[in-house]
Amino acid sequence: MNRFDDLGQWQAHRRALRTGELGFVPTMGALHAGHRSLVEASVNGNERTVVSLFVNPTQFDQRADLDAYPADLDGDLDKLRAWGVDDVLVPDYGALYPDGYRYRVAESGLSSRLCGAHRPGHFDGVLSVVMKLFNLVRPARAYFGEKDWQQLALVRGMVEAFFMPVDIVGCPTVREGDGLALSSRNQRLSPAERAMAPGFHRALVQQASADDAAQALQAAGFDVDYVEDIDGRRLGAVRLGSTRLIDNIALES
Ligand SMILES: Nc1ncnc2c1ncn2[C@@H]1O[C@H](COP(=O)(O)OP(=O)(O)OP(=O)(O)O)[C@@H](O)[C@H]1O
Ligand SMILES: CC(C)(CO)[C@@H](O)C(=O)[O-]
Ligand code: BAL
């Protein structure tokens, strides 16, 4: 596995690659089995797989959340090697943002609802870094988790809007045995919060309406950012202490 911290070296390597069948998995590190499922889909569907590890500051609306974001670079590199990844990009902020974020991708509809309503500027940061990474990697396919449903929808929209030559592949949410969606931020839950956390997915699945689910969650001690039913899915975000969890499910039709 090749590791590139220097984007100039990566670009030289990319130019020398003759394959068009490149799969790409963008991540913020602290890898878990959810990331593994994306990498597996890419390894199975492409000649080469590239993964990026970059905790993107422009998508964090709260400094404390960024500072507390889990990191385990050596562990991540061991995992990526074992999962069959060919190239890993580990750029720093200055390399990815030579413009200091003067230029950015903005979306003016969906990005200000749901998670965007609670994390101002979040999706501008996500779309901007994803566009930068797509331009650097030039993948045939890029893999995103359905856990981040709104992100997946916005990335698909950006690719369509800008005629970007990449197929976006959505991958099902990987869960713990008790239903909790795997997330790097789960590491920050205290034992008591971890015991409560599966109640989030349970409420989304069991309650008859989005309002009922929000009320049940509030009553169980979650701080509810939102629960909404949209286009046949129920999406929600809650906070347990300082940790924010998101999840979504398909609604039975
Ligand atoms: N449980 C999961 N199942 C499937 N895909 C996932 C899961 N968790 C994360 N992903 C996907 O992995 C990619 C990288 O996500 P990221 O590195 O932010 O991890 P995360 O676990 O979502 O972290 P966070 O704590 O920031 O939510 C995204 O496309 C995301 O949707
Ligand atoms: C897509 C992404 C890597 C952009 O920083 C991030 O939002 C994530 O990990 O879901
Ligand atoms: N996977 C979502 C990234 C974030 O919460 O910023």
Protein described:
The protein is an alpha/beta fold. The protein folds into 2 domains: 2-171, HUPs (Rossmann fold); 184-248, Pantoate--beta-alanine Ligase, Chain: A,domain 2 (2-Layer Sandwich). It has 11 helices and 9 strands. The chain has helices spanning 7-16, 33-45, 63-67, 73-82, 93-96, 115-118, 122-137, 149-161, 191-196, 198-206, 210-220; strands at residues 2-4, 22-27, 48-53, 87-89, 141-145, 167-171, 223-230, 233-240, 243-250. The chain has a 6-stranded parallel β-sheet, with helices on both faces. A hairpin with a 2-residue loop joins strand 8 and strand 9. Helix 10 packs antiparallel against helix 11. Pantoate is lined by residues 26-28, 56, 59, 126, 129-130, 148, 151.
Q: Could you list some keywords that capture this structure?
A:
253 residues, alpha/beta, Rossmann fold, Pantoate--beta-alanine Ligase, Chain: A,domain 2, 2 domains, three-stranded antiparallel beta sheet, binds adenosine-5'-triphosphate, binds pantoate, binds beta-alanine
What would you give as the CATH superfamily of the largest domain? HUPs
How many beta-strand runs? 9
| Assembly classification | single chain
Strand content of the residues, in percent? 15-25%
**SSE topology string:** EHEHEHHEHHHEHEHHHEEE
Structural class: alpha/beta
Q: List the total number of helices.
A: 11
CATH class call of the largest domain: Alpha Beta
User: Main sheet?
Assistant: 6 strands, parallel
CATH hierarchy: architecture of the largest domain: 3-Layer(aba) Sandwich
In round numbers, the mean pLDDT is 97
Strand order of the largest sheet: 1-4-3-2-5-6
Give the cofactors and ligands: adenosine-5'-triphosphate, pantoate, beta-alanine
Pfam families: Pantoate_ligase
GO biological process, one term: pantothenate biosynthetic process
Function: Catalyzes the condensation of pantoate with beta-alanine in an ATP-dependent reaction via a pantoyl-adenylate intermediate.
Protein name: Pantothenate synthetase
